[in-house]
Specification:
- The complex is a heterodimer of chains A (322) and B (248).
- Chain A has 13 helices and eleven strands.
- Chain A is an alpha/beta fold and 322 residues long.
- A five-stranded parallel beta sheet of chain A has the order 2-1-3-4-5. Chain A has a four-stranded mixed beta sheet with strand order 9-8-11-10.
- The radius of gyration of chain A is 22 Å and the shape is elongated.
- Chain B is 39% helix and 24% strand.
- Chain B has a six-stranded antiparallel beta sheet with strand order 1-2-3-4-6-7. Chain B has a two-stranded antiparallel ribbon with strand order 5-8.
- The chains are: A alpha/beta (322), B alpha+beta (248).
- Chains A and B meet through helix 12 of A and helix 2 and helix 3 of B.
């Protein structure tokens, strides 16, 4: 099957064409046009490397609120082109009104207000889906190899794969399912740490971590669907690189050793947000509704009631009340 | 005189085996759910130890369990029949190397009563192996190459966990004798013993898991089998174990 080279962007707001041009996407303006007819025509051609869809297409015709939804169109695309990633773009004011199931019709969901900062991420999605699609003889290990993981983590990653990714490789939706799983890996600390977790792991505050981040470059996640705008680090590589630079003394953990990195001063040290003392060893939400996280001591936190424990991942915790 | 290598594994084999134990403990569902802090420590020490065979091996963590014979807690039940832990079992290992040879090997099990705000040390045992590597300090008297010692000095992390050195002083940690001739210990053997002696509702199932039993059996084969074989050899030659295993 031939694949069109250009990303397709379907939207009823012609003002977004400039952003589409920046992405080198083919902009399909459906304002006052028959949406169904356009979609049928597109589906008769080769699949594009990626589709971007506006979620609300109420300026297209015919006037039917069901058919004027990006999610309906996304379903049609997914059925015909299951290995093509579908990205939703919508204005920021209606994101909260869209239910989770509808959001999951798309592979990923971005607000148009912040869209430009996601351009690199969209490119990574396009490349990742293409890579998975052209890989022959897929196995669970091959899937995991897309992440370019540390050798020691391969078995655990294979074990951590959801059941539907341990088999059903011939199902062309494998790229979509892999993408969703990797997004989860990036969101849940365990194999991968975000900046705050990485800093805390090294006994530093976030700004100090920026000073030493280049020394941990080899630990940065560069596998499929990597987020350049919001990087992650392999937790096992962080410790490996750390202990190569500074040998641990008896009884020292990574948050002790990290403070001996060259150039680190007292003001760079992490402190527990809850008690103010040194050597916080975890990261926790401020409370059960907050989306803010801080470095804390484990004993200053408790399990977050909204999150279940997961075997290969850190517990999601929140600050203990007074 | 008996050499350690006559019955004890090489440092790389022993450390590799201990790292495999940590690898299992860090992701075992029972450990993760019931003794989460232990799983976190296992994970952190796994990363710390896995590339550092020339540096040795270190591990310290603990299990908090409810022990029926501990009289203090009359109201030891929490929500849904869950018992509030009243005992902390501290497990510590240190394998020190010098020029890739063993200098000292220590496995420690400490039993503490959990008090509000601090721990009371009830029992403390060291299972030691004396290596030949490094500079051997002049000793006052002979001692067994592998032995069990009651009490022994504080493990550095015990103080941060809330143990008071003054309590240990009551047991006179300066007195190393008697060093009781004992089989060599390993991490899986020590944990298995600790969970056997201080079981909780799920530890029995954990100990029965094939993965865990496989590790215990592999450490028995690595550490105990050559030791007992040596013991049988010594006895068969009409020598005493003390003749062979005590070193000066």
């Amino acid at each position: 099957m031939s694949i069109s080279k250009k990303i397709i962007w379907i939207d009823d707001n012609p003002g977004r064409k400039r952003t589409a041009d920046d992405l080198d996407a083919k902009f399909v303006n459906v304002q006052n046009k028959d949406l169904a007819e356009i979609v049928v025509e597109l589906l008769s051609g080769p699949p594009p490397p990626l589709v971007i869809l506006d979620h609300v297409l109420d300026r297209s015709t015919p006037k039917n609120p069901v058919l004027q939804k990006g999610s309906t169109i996304a379903e049609a695309f997914k059925e015909e082109w299951p290995s093509c990633p579908v990205v939703c773009v919508t204005s920021g004011d209606n994101v909260e009104d869209i239910d989770l199931r509808t959001k999951r019709t798309y592979d990923v969901f971005f607000s148009f207000q912040d869209f430009r900062k996601y351009i690199d991420r969209i490119d990574a999605i396009r490349k990742g889906f293409a890579l998975v699609a052209r890989t022959k003889g897929m196995t669970a290990r091959k899937l995991v190899q897309f992440l370019k993981p540390p050798k020691d983590e391969i078995d655990r990653l294979v074990a951590a794969l959801p059941d539907d990714l341990k088999e059903s490789f011939r199902d062309p939706s494998v790229a979509s399912r892999l993408y969703r799983w990797i997004e989860g890996l990036m969101d849940r600390p365990g194999f991968l740490y975000d900046r705050l977790w990485a800093a805390t792991f090294l006994g530093l505050n976030e700004s100090a971590f920026e000073k030493v981040a280049d020394r941990f470059e080899k630990g940065q996640y560069i596998g499929v669907f990597a987020r350049d705008d919001d990087p992650r680090w392999w937790s096992s590589r962080l410790s490996e690189i750390l202990y190569k630079q500074c040998k641990p003394k008896t009884g020292e953990m990574s948050w002790h050793v990290g403070r001996r990195l060259r150039g680190i001063k007292k003001e760079h040290h992490s402190r527990c947000y809850a008690c103010g003392k040194e050597f916080p060893d975890t990261v926790a939400y401020l409370d059960k509704v907050s989306n803010q996280q801080r470095a804390m001591h484990l004993e200053c936190t408790l399990l977050h009631p909204r999150f279940q424990r997961e075997l290969y991942f850190e517990d999601i915790r929140m600050m203990r009340g007074q | 005189m008996m050499e350690l290598s006559d019955f004890y594994p090489s440092p790389s084999d022993l450390i590799e085996s201990e790292i495999a134990v940590l690898n299992l403990l860090r992701t075992d569902p029972y450990i993760k759910e019931t003794h989460n802090q232990f799983a976190r420590h296992a994970s952190a020490y796994y990363e710390r130890n896995r590339d550092g065979q020339s540096r040795g091996f270190e591990f310290v963590s603990y299990f908090d369990v409810w022990h029926a014979s501990m009289r203090r807690q009359k109201q030891g039940s929490g929500k849904q029949g869950k018992r509030t832990p009243n005992v902390r079992l501290l497990v510590a290992v240190r394998i020190e190397l010098d020029k890739r040879a063993f200098s000292n090997v220590t496995y420690c099990l400490t039993v503490c009563r959990i008090r509000s705000g601090h721990l009371t040390i009830l029992r403390k045992f060291h299972f030691d192996v004396t290596g030949g590597g490094g500079k051997s300090e002049p000793r006052l008297q002979q001692h067994p190459l592998c032995h069990l010692q009651y009490c022994g000095e504080m493990v550095p992390q015990m103080a941060t966990m809330g143990c008071r050195e003054t309590q240990l002083n009551q047991m006179h940690p300066w007195l190393s004798e008697p060093r009781i001739f004992f089989w060599p210990m390993s991490l899986a053997l020590l944990i298995d013993m600790a969970l056997h002696e201080f079981p909780d509702g799920r530890s029995k199932k954990f100990r029965e898991k094939p993965e865990w039993r496989g590790l215990v059996r592999s450490q028995e084969a690595l550490v105990l089998q050559p030791f007992y074989k040596k013991c049988v050899d010594v006895i068969g030659k009409h020598r005493t174990l003390a003749d062979e295993f005590y070193v000066g």
